[in-house]
Amino acid sequence: MYKLLKQDGKAKRGELHTVHGVIQTPVFMNVGTVAAIKGAVSTMDLQEIGTQVELSNTYHLHVRPGDQIVKKMGGLHKFMVWDKPILTDSGGFQVFSLSSLRKIKEEGVYFSSHIDGRKIFMGPEESMQIQSNLASTIAMAFDECPSSVADRIYVQASVERTTRWLKRCKEEMARLNSLPDTINKHQMLFGINQGAVYEDIRIEHAKEIARLDLDGYAVGGLAVGETHEEMYRILDAVVPFLPLEKPTYLMGVGTPANILEAVDRGVDFFDCVYPSRNGRHGHVYTGRGKLNLFNAKYETDPRPIEEGCQCPACRHYSRAYIRHLLKAKEMLGMRLCVLHNLYFYNHMMEEIRTAIDENRYQEYKKAKLAGFEEENIKK
């Protein structure tokens, strides 16, 4: 159950009560695609850096180790030793990114595994069954994610099919949650709004799926090639047509600036691989922009990545030492950068929640965005 606690303009401050605990929103979900954050980050680390929700991927876990194996091990929470909420992506985005390996039909999608080439079929029912086996807190509906540059006729037909698939997902989840051997009988379902960059298609789709009274609603198919301005335009258009009293999730977004802008438009769930991916390449986030620790100017820099940061990297190590680790290709260098970046994102979400609570979100957003520009100006 979602409880809207406060609004500051369109920015929402809420709580989502789940079987695995309460999620304070706005929230950033830390992405652990195959039930682990890339960069040697453990679930104990996630607890330490203030993670509220971990996100894993249906397609990847279905392919390896197999959702039946995860079910035998007691579900994802037991398997990866994590007692807080987990959201599983439906696998739709991954299936559709395998454009050369798949074939879409009304019943679902036929495709080849990217690992061993074996033939796999996934439709709404299969996606729900896999996610039920994984026993995540929140399951995402199986949808098609059309390209942001797809033509209007294709997008319209795709969105209509996504709606039909969503209804099948809802029916199948209700059936699965009633079975005696289901691990999580309180699994939630979020639907996904699609429509590429066509405002009218997006709005109509939002109205239609809102009538299904789901546990939450995502905006999908953004941050896939369109400009930031186009993404904000679509959010401005579509978010007002999604239920205010349900969580709104912007999938796969994004940079700290993207998150600040989307919160301002009423979004309260986010996920993105940026903090871990950038961290593995020595790119770290600070309140004054992003730093590349491979740069020679940090070779003898005794300061932490960011002064005052309480992450495990900044509490103990210098930029110079972390740069040395990265240059020497020591895994610890990657790990410390990923821990810092995830902490940065999680801590920024805490600040956002406090700013909304205190009716000063606009002021906070303006100051934060100005801070990010400092490093760019210096360059």
Automatic annotation (TrEMBL):
Name of the molecule in the record: Queuine tRNA-ribosyltransferase
A Gene Ontology cellular-component term: cytosol
GO terms, molecular function: metal ion binding; tRNA-guanosine(34) queuine transglycosylase activity
Biological source species: Murimonas intestini
Keyword Zinc set for record: yes
Keyword annotations: Glycosyltransferase, Metal-binding, Queuosine biosynthesis, Transferase, tRNA processing, Zinc
Known partners and oligomeric status: Homodimer. Within each dimer, one monomer is responsible for RNA recognition and catalysis, while the other monomer binds to the replacement base PreQ1.
SUPFAM superfamilies in UniProt: tRNA-guanine transglycosylase
